[in-house]
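Worked example

This section walks through a single chain of length 111. The input is the sequence exactly as stored; nothing has been trimmed or padded.
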Amino acid sequence: MEEMLTDIRNLDYVVLLCNDTARMKAFYHGVLSFPIYRDWDDWIEMRVGAALLTLRQRGRPYDGEKSLHSAGVQLAFRVAPSEVDGCHAELLDNQVGIIELVEQLPDLSRA
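Given that input, the structure is written out below as tokens.
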């Protein structure tokens, strides 16, 4: 049998389960300016490079409950090192709460 799963090369989309899709849309589309690809009330797709970032209302039986004071996912968006400070300042200008200070991570691609 041919092994098809080893041919996966790209991430197509990520679904974020939301308690408040309007608030999440306001952040990702309004603040980060990710363009809307599709918007169906409780399913909102935004283009981020080659992938889609999808917001979906939490509520399906298999979704589980959101844990209080805990992140369900951590997303990292690539920007040039020279743009980090400007992006940080722009988030602050938009009254986005910064949970963790910005830091330079080691370049592990050369390890």
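What to look for: The longest strand covers residues 51-57.
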